[in-house]
Specification:
disordered N terminus, 31-stranded mixed β-sheet
């Protein structure tokens, strides 16, 4: 093969039929190298021109392109620079004015005397925008959503949608006279913030940005201050220390932590402390309803991720009680609060808000005054504070709360376990369990505000409990008392307050006393055995306990009126019965207890002992009208006959019929009660009572 036909020199013919020449490999490499050099030279030339001119000649194109892309006017009234220095983009604009869309409340999105920044070039194309340094002078920004929460002022383009605001990552900032306004009519939230630079005293810290402002969240005004300490060498592993304080809803909130950059806080653990007068006022700001509290002081660690705010390592106090645990606030389609809490010691006064009482009033003036403060007329104890129906329907919640001990003067309560579930206005406290005087109580409470008025259900179950411990604060001696009691309260009513729901309720209340003993100063008061009663009054205790065979204290409730059904207690010496009832509506009490002896006895009254008055101020009528009448008869007999004859009026012939304990221990109604001989009882009523005023 000769040189003319070799592969290195042969080529396809051209259009004229002549073979075209192909450049040798060396020449092709030269072309590629020269092309690269030309491109690099051109880039360098552009860079050099921009560097020398600072890109000032791009001011007009920048305004035109920015205005077209943003769909609004963008003007730079002063100096303008845009170039690489050397590999970071240098941007400078003086007297800049970026207009707002026409629907906004203010004319300009932002105005500034000066904006200067060093920007990472690739961040403009990929990922989150990153600025190494930013300097702002007399910067005013207006960030606003429309009423439908579909458009906002900072989303550029055709305005068909609004994206969530994402702060660029800023390593260091120098701000002078910066003002920011943020408005969201849907929440609603209005914030006016002023940012001013300060110089930190710590020589290891370069500059700090201090922020002050005020505003309104929903209907709650607030004010705040914050300092963000920016060190000189963030890129080499420095830290940005944040300290902030806000005042709102009679409380103070402190936030502190370390940020990876000046504006990067998501996923960063922050220390939070909140203290104030009433925690319910603070949570009400975000439409979360909890019972009222006394003064609180709580600390926790906060981490924000997207729409979730997680509070962990919670510790602190409210009133005289302690609190620990964790909780999460989620703000998706519906606001939701989930909490897992523990309390070592709960003061009984701090528990008052759970039934609608103001704990401060309970502590200073007592329960009756606290009940009156809820809207009750007169002296009542059932609270008339309305359920926060509207708020309960705006958020959901879940709570698991363990309480070790309750400080209580009269009734020892411990080991409380409360589970709460709130879903679209239906609140369930189920189960709520606790130990009371060595007895266990299990209960379920349902507050269904979806129905109007609210449908409220009460179900309280008391397991076998020693009466000595249960009633120790009311004169019953623990030593010598072996009697126990168990029972259940099951009521259903309608109303938006505890008082209204109970005033309309129907159901049954029943407490059973199996065989045992009871020792107390006034245990035989209903029997009215005068000799024993006088001895108890002066000696303070009985010689021996009362022996109880069985007992039942039961009421049938219809439309808020509770009637005895029955009250029947069988002791070794007497049979005690009760009649009457009480009203949840008026809180009036009208009960009469009668004790009949099983054996012949002198000085035995046989007359009812009445309990009247109201829940707040019950009255014990030891000397009943019947007894007064019998005393008159006795005095008359003594006058016309002899003193011995006068005693006949107080003679108990001992004809009391012993109770069959089967129906008693079963909690049966009055119609099912029998004597030990199987005959129906005619001394326990029919489970009905007239209206009690």
């Amino acid at each position: 093969m000769d040189a003319a036909t070799s592969p290195e020199t042969s080529a396809a013919p051209d259009a004229a039929g002549k073979p075209a020449e192909t450049p040798p490999p060396r020449r092709r490499r030269h072309y590629l190298r020269n092309t690269v050099l030309i491109v690099l030279f051109a880039v360098f030339a552009i860079w050099l021109i921009l560097f020398i001119t600072k890109g000032r000649f791009l001011k007009g194109p920048f305004e035109s392109i920015a205005s077209s892309s943003a769909g609004r006017s963008v003007k730079v009234g002063g100096d303008f620079q845009l170039y690489f220095a050397p590999l970071r983009i240098k941007f400078l604009a003086e007297q800049i004015d970026v207009k707002n869309p026409q629907w906004a409340g203010r004319a300009s999105l932002l105005t500034a005397k000066k904006i200067e920044a060093r920007i990472a070039p690739l961040s403009l194309l990929f990922g989150r925008k990153h600025a190494y340094t930013v300097e702002l002078v007399d910067f005013d920004a207006d960030f606003e959503w429309d009423k439908a929460h579909k458009r906002n002022t900072w989303t550029f383009g055709d305005g068909s949608g609004g994206e969530a605001f994402q702060m660029p990552r800023i390593d260091r900032a120098d701000v002078k006279g910066t003002r920011i306004r943020y408005l969201d009519p849907r929440m609603p939230l209005l914030a006016n913030l002023n940012v001013e630079p300060i110089v930190a005293k710590d020589t290891q810290i370069g500059q700090a940005v201090q922020l002050k402002g005020d505003g309104r969240f929903r209907t709650t005004p607030f004010r705040l201050t914050a300092s963000l300490l920016s060190p000189d060498a963030t890129a080499s592993g420095g830290e940005n220390k944040l300290t902030a304080r806000a005042w709102a809803a009679n409380g103070v909130i402190d936030v502190s932590g370390t940020l990876p950059s000046l504006t990067e806080y998501e996923g960063v653990p922050l220390k939070v402390r909140a203290r104030g007068k009433d925690l319910s006022e603070l949570l009400e700001v975000i439409d979360v309803a909890i019972p009222r509290t006394r003064r609180y002081d709580l600390r926790a660690q906060l981490v924000n991720e997207d729409q979730d705010y997680r509070f962990t390592d919670l510790t602190g106090t409210f009133g005289q009680s302690d609190l620990a645990g964790k909780f999460t606030i989620k703000n998706d389609e519906r606001l939701r609060l989930d909490a897992n809490l523990t309390t070592r010691r709960l003061d009984i006064i701090d528990a008052a808000p759970f039934i609608g009482y103001n704990p401060d009033i309970v502590a200073s003036k007592g329960a009756v005054a606290a009940a009156s403060a809820t809207g009750n007329a007169g002296e009542r104890v059932l609270p008339d504070a309305e359920l926060p129906v509207a708020m309960m329907q705006r958020f959901d919640a879940g709570l698991d709360w363990k309480i070790a001990v309750v400080r209580s003067r009269n009734v020892p309560v411990s080991n409380i376990s409360l589970k709460l579930a709130l879903e679209r206005g239906r609140l369930a406290l189920s189960p709520l369990t606790f130990t009371m005087a060595r007895g266990d109580v299990a209960s379920d409470f349902i507050f269904n505000t979806r129905q109007r008025p609210s449908a409220i259900s009460y179900d309280i179950r008391l397991k076998s409990t020693p009466m000595g411990r249960l009633l120790a604060g009311y004169g019953v001696a623990d030593s010598g008392t072996t009697g126990t009691i168990h029972g259940r309260i099951k009521l259903d009513g309608r109303g938006d307050t505890i008082h209204d729901s109970l005033a309309s309720s129907s159901g049954r209340i029943a407490f059973v006393m199996p065989q045992g003993t009871l020792w107390t100063q006034n245990a035989q008061l209903a029997e009215l055995d005068l000799g024993t009663f006088v001895y108890k009054m002066f000696q303070g205790k009985l010689k021996k306990p009362i022996e109880i065979n069985c007992g039942l204290l039961a009421f049938t409730v219809r439309n808020g009126i509770a009637a005895t059904d029955p009250i029947l207690i069988d002791t070794s010496k007497n049979v005690i019965t009760g009649n009457g009832g009480f009203s949840f509506g008026t809180e009036a009490v009208d009960l009469a207890f009668r004790g009949d002896g099983k054996k012949f006895s002198l000085f035995s009254g046989q007359s009812p002992v009445g309990i009247g008055g109201h829940f707040a101020s019950p009255k014990l009528n030891v000397i009943s009208p019947q007894l007064v009448g019998r005393a008159g008869i006795g005095l008359g007999l003594a006058a016309v006959a002899s003193p011995v004859a006068g005693l006949l009026a107080f003679v108990d012939v001992g004809d009391a019929k012993s109770a069959a304990c089967g129906p008693v221990l079963a909690g049966a109604r009055a119609t099912a009660q029998r004597t030990t001989k199987g005959k129906p009882r005619d001394d326990v009523g029919k489970g009905r009572v007239k209206k009690i005023d």
